[in-house]
Amino acid sequence: MKSIYAITPSGVNFEKLIKEIEKMLSMGIKLFQYREKGLSEEQMKINASIMLEVINKNNGKLIINDSPKIAIEIGADGFHLGMEDYLNSKNLKFIKEHKDMINSDYIKGLSCKWDCKLIKNPPEDLITWNYLGIGAFFKSETKENVSFLEDGDKSFPLSITSKPLVAIGGINYQNMDSVLSLGYETIAMSKGIFFKKDVENIIKNLNEKN
């Protein structure tokens, strides 16, 4: 079942963001990640709690970027980490202290970029990852200085792991078909879908492929 994983853009007025999320929920998008780089942990926690209530009320799920602690404390559905975030001493300590609960009750995602070794063997001594993020597929405004394949086979991660994969990086209405045609079921979209006039077309296009 092909689906969209909506990742919130940073630096957006929070009230406007909540209204946009409500609109997207009404259109059938159910999986969201709260990603915000410019706020304190306390403000992130406050915002994430409000967002979680809105999303869960509409039968959606909320993943917290970078912080297992916030995810667990507010009762979010899971968290997403890059390798640097996973290896961060604060995050590792928290994961070690709560690994049983994290493994049984939460969705865990790991960004692998285009690292074959990491895709084949993600670190699972503490937790089992529920999905892996792969990319960037295209140049992205959300993340600068990321690696992406110019000419390589972007479908190769599908053949080297049995874990669910999420295609990440610069995906929008104009290029989403090229990603889906490779065999990816879930595509992450941030600035490619938030506050865009063609949201309905994006969802219609996706539904036609299911």
| DSSP strand content | 15-25%
Mean pLDDT: 94
- The value of Rg in angstroms is 16 Å
**N-to-C terminal Cα separation, in Å?**
6 Å
| CATH architecture annotation name | Alpha-Beta Barrel
Dominant shape: globular
Strand line-up of the largest beta sheet: 1-2-3-4-5-6-7-8
Low-confidence stretches: none
CATH third-tier fold name? TIM Barrel
| Percent in helix | 25-40%
Largest sheet: 8 strands, parallel, barrel
What number of structural domains do the residues give? 1
SSE topology:
Blueprint: E1 3-7, H1 14-26, E2 31-34, H2 41-57, E3 61-65, H3 68-74, E4 78-81, H4 83-87, H5 89-97, H6 99-105, E5 107-113, H7 116-120, E6 131-135, H8 157-160, E7 165-168, H9 176-180, E8 186-189, H10 199-208
Helix pairs in contact: 1-2, 2-3
Would you give an account of this structure?
It is a single chain. The chain is an alpha/beta fold. It has one domain: Aldolase class I (TIM Barrel, Alpha-Beta Barrel), CATH 3.20.20.70. The protein has an eight-stranded parallel beta barrel with strand order 1-2-3-4-5-6-7-8, surrounded by four helices. The longest helix has 17 residues.
How would you sum up this structure in a few lines?
Helices cover 39% and strands 18% of the residues. The protein is an alpha/beta fold.
Which features does this protein show?
alpha/beta, 10 helices, 18% strand, 39% helix, TIM Barrel, 210 residues, eight-stranded parallel barrel
